[in-house]
Design a protein that fits this description.
By secondary structure, the protein is of the alpha+beta class. 36% of the residues lie in helices and 21% in strands. It is built from 17 helices and 23 strands. An 8-stranded antiparallel β-sheet has the order 13-14-15-16-23-20-19-18, with no helix packed on it. A 5-stranded antiparallel β-sheet has the order 5-6-7-10-11, with helices on one face. Helix 7 packs antiparallel against helix 8, helix 9 packs parallel to helix 11 and helix 14 packs antiparallel against helix 15. The N terminus is likely disordered.
Length: 653
């Protein structure tokens, strides 16, 4: 493969001298890749590797010294060594956690093209040969991507850093070799998604400093060089590199690290300048003025928090110039994230959910406690010193907690109610209770252009327990029928009219509902939020919907009033999804008692119409990716001539 010609093409594409890249590269690019494979060269040839190896040899010492290894060693609590060592030993023994279950791989090497949960192989074909259509219906690419993000390298590198035992360094380099031998460039599921390619490269570059004192480091540098150049070639030629949504930040962090690791190369220098500018431009595109995000699902909030924290950490390490406007935007994002996490540090659940962390050691990869991210983020935004970078890296990438880090606690226990109108996020709070409300539909550009029919949906927590919940996702690929159900209004805490989705085409295009906030007031005693929804004006008999949330904090009572303005008969269905850990008892009439471990909530339905019923139905709930529990939902059905209304009262006990 003539990578020198390809890199020239990369440069033209990258800096706007050519049209936008096709989804899987130009015909020229694809033909070059196929030609290389035919000749037995699955990765870049020696000529270009030697050029970059010379640059790498010069820039590497400065890069490695930028990351404070000795500070991490000195800060690491001796009593917590065992956790890291145990995790690393499991990796060496091919025992890997996957969605909170442990899988023991019986073969000497990981099969990178195998779905270990569903026991089905992924096809090893070119990514542009309609790879998804060749997947078995029972296979889920996410199961493979989760292993291939190289989370394991953190365990191995940290174990080596703390012990200097070469077995961990050997395991580290063996894993990289195994991946490269099994994943020819642009073939197979692990080259299909550009964000996964970027994350893999970032996780490798971030762990290099911890492993650099190994006696095997020098002999493996050519392999590292080959791997990173292949990632670069991919993300600069293929449009599917996470460029169109919040995942673009993974690409920017890759290019920032690459430009510092290969400092001195002219192309890397251009990457550095362009990446800094584009990160700021992307931040202005993705983060709205009030700090909420353009995409309203959970995943963008979580992963943007990770990406911004990493970027600011790298900016501190590499002495990137500060930008007041971008910093202000990040401060607003921190405010929203703090409000979103609440007193429990648990991010709201809406639309697309993350299946694992972008960057973490194995022990922390499923830890979605915002405090692990918000504490370093707060420090980076409010401190100009570099003396705590080691603490930030250790806090960010491990489960270990330690005293004397200098990082703020990011205590959210005394949060008040907050509303973010641009992003459609509202958090109504008393001392013991939290009500999260989304007035926009959650949407995502990738992996599928989908919209969740969850306008006006809400979640309710009382004394730290989840009572009313959104359903989650469970899987994006394996069971598309289940996925469609879980993103429908039938499984969100909202309403439907005439069994018709609020989205004009069932949720596969842009949301046209255009909700309008009529009232938003918050005090220590009372919160009021009233919104109009015009999604159903498209019906033969147009209907305007009005939902009001009224939180009387002195009486511990939340009242939801839904009003429907029209002139004909309609069937209105309102859904309340209940967490599977909550016990449900009918306490008389249209009243139900929801009981948790340490608190309770009484639900009462009030409606003047005689043509209304409330029944308890089966449902399901996914607390995290690949896990599905049976649950219940209360369904109110109202058949009547409009205008009409009903009221749902929650008494918090």
């Amino acid at each position: 493969m003539d990578i020198s010609r390809s890199l020239a093409t990369v440069k033209l594409f990258e800096f706007g001298k050519k049209p936008a890249k096709p989804a899987f590269g130009s015909a020229f690019f694809r033909n070059e890749v196929k030609s290389a494979h035919t000749s037995g060269k699955h990765y870049p040839p020696d000529s270009i590797l030697k050029r970059y190896r010379k640059v790498l040899d010069k820039a590497l010492p400065e890069y490695l010294l930028s990351f404070p290894a000795q500070e991490i060693i000195s800060r690491f609590p001796r009593e917590d060594f065992r956790q890291i060592i145990e995790s690393a030993d499991k990796v060496l023994g091919n025992e890997l956690p996957l969605f909170r279950t442990s899988i023991k791989i019986s073969t000497p090497q990981i099969d990178w093209h195998y779905d270990y949960l569903n026991r089905i192989s992924y096809p090893l074909v070119y990514i542009w040969d309609n790879l998804p259509a060749q997947l078995s219906e029972a296979a889920d690419p996410v199961n493979g991507w989760d292993i291939a993000r190289f989370h394991q390298l953190y365990d191995l590198a940290l174990a080596y850093l703390l012990t200097s035992e070469e077995k961990y360094a050997g395991g580290y380099f063996s894993m990289v070799t195994s991946f490269m031998d099994s994943n020819p460039f642009c073939k197979g599921i692990n080259w299909y998604d550009g964000t996964e390619v970027c994350l893999r490269g970032v996780n490798l570059m971030l762990t290099l400093p911890w492993i650099s004192r190994s006696v095997h480091f020098g002999e493996n540098l050519d392999q590292i060089n080959t791997f990173l150049l292949s990632c670069l070639l991919y993300i600069q030629n293929i449009q599917r590199a996470g460029e169109n949504d919040y995942r673009a930040f993974a690409r920017h962090n890759f290019l920032l690290l690459f430009s510092r690791l290969y400092k001195g190369d002219s192309l890397a220098g251009e990457f550095f300048e362009q990446t800094v500018k584009r990160f700021r431009a992307e931040a202005e595109k993705q983060i709205l003025k009030d700090g909420s995000l353009r995409e309203s699902s959970t995943a963008p909030y979580w992963h943007l928090a990770e990406s911004v924290t990493l970027y600011l950490t790298l900016a501190n390490i590499f002495d990137l110039p500060a930008d007041a406007k971008t910093k202000k935007l990040f401060e607003k994002l921190l405010e929203v994230l703090t409000a979103a996490g609440g007193s429990e540090g648990k991010l709201f659940r809406s639309g697309k959910i993350p299946f694992s962390r972008f960057h973490s050691c194995l022990a922390a990869k499923y830890n979605f406690s915002l405090s692990k991210i918000l504490s370093p983020l707060s420090y980076l935004l409010h401190s100009s010193g570099k003396n705590e970078i080691g603490a930030i890296l250790l806090n960010f990438f491990t489960e270990v907690t330690f005293e004397g880090s200098g990082l703020p606690a990011n205590d959210a226990t005394h949060l008040s109610s907050a509303g973010y109108t641009e992003g459609g996020k509202y958090f109504l709070r008393s001392r013991d209770s939290e009500l999260y409300i989304s007035i926009r539909s959650s949407h995502s550009d990738l992996p599928l252009p989908v919209v969740f029919d969850d306008i006006f949906s809400y979640e309710l927590r009382n004394k730290g327990e989840s009572f009313i919940v959104n359903p989650g996702v469970c899987s994006y690929f394996k069971d598309l029928t289940l996925f469609d159900k879980m993103r429908s209004a039938w499984h969100h805490n909202t309403f439907l009219i005439d069994n018709t989705p609020s989205l004009s085409d069932g949720g596969t295009a842009v949301d046209l509902s255009k909700p309008k906030v009529v009232e938003w007031n918050t005090t220590d005693a009372q919160d009021n939020l009233v919104i109009l929804n015009h999604a159903y004006v498209r019906l033969p008999d147009p209907v305007i919907c009005k939902r009001g949330f009224f939180f009387d904090k002195n009486k511990n009572k939340i009242t939801i009033k839904d009003e429907f303005i029209g002139g004909a008969y309609h069937q209105i269905t309102s859904i309340i999804n209940i967490h599977p850990d909550i016990k449900i008892e009918k306490s008389g009439g249209n009243e139900y008692l929801l009981t948790g471990k340490s608190s309770a909530v009484k639900v009462k339905f009030v409606f003047p119409s005689e043509n209304a019923t409330v029944i308890l139905r089966e449902s399901f709930y996914s607390p995290e990716y690949n896990i599905l529990h049976n649950s219940s939902r209360l369904v109110l059905t109202l058949d009547d001539r409009l205008p009409a209304f009903y009221i749902i009262e929650y008494t918090l006990l």
